[in-house]
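Encode chain A's predicted structure.
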Amino acid sequence: MCILCEKFGDPEIGRGRWYLNPSNYGRQLYRRRRPGSAPGEFTRGYRGGSAVQEVPGGLRNEAPERVPELVASWWANVDKERPAQVITLEDAFEVAALCHPFASMMCECRLWSRAREERNPDEYSCGGLGVGMLKWERWPERYKGGVNFMTLEEAKDWLTRWVMRGMVPIIMTYGAPYVGGLCLCDYPDCGMIRRRLDVGIGCLKGHEVAVVDYDRCNGCGVCVQRCQWGALKFEVTTGQAHIDQYRCFGCGVCAVGCPRDAITMKPRSEFPALAEVW
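Encoded structure for chain A:
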């Protein structure tokens, strides 16, 4: 189990995974207040994710000697930061079933990275979870494209469509363990994926790793094109796919897209060398 599961999971619920624990979807942020009263402070562990914000914001160029310190600080305090975690499509379905309401919206990372505002629900690849979405009008800059509320079946179709296109499902938090979003991301745009691959913070690996069935793999290369993590390569000598499981983040995007069902997802805990690699 990852550090978030150890601290915020329940062994009797959702296979012990913290994001499948319903108690982690409640937020004091959304308590009803009297008219004119000011909101109180968050009370359970929210620190604002300082390291996540400082490192990518130019610090590497302005004071690169501080990067190792900040990265170490983030990992030492991951349960007090704003961590994200990669999950599979199947787990994303379970998350969608736990929360209400479920809504899609424009991608904030894409706005930052490409100055692109999405105003059409067919383009939305970020998902907002829980009662906070009922108050989305309070944050017009974040939700300027509007929101699209979905039923559970619509949410499953939405998730499937984006994963089939090659996007990675990632659980987002306001501050551990409060689940606030389920986004579909790719490396060029996603802040969390870029932070993890570029400097090593922000996003935890998932609870599974991908395994190739070489009796089924015909070397078509579809999986190699879909991997956002650099974990998949094409073996010249065998003409088949090869997965570097140490680099695998367990998103399952390769498995979902494999036309021959030659890739399966196995629990990370089954591999002693990978069990604590998050």
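The chain has two domains: 3-45+78-204, 208-270.
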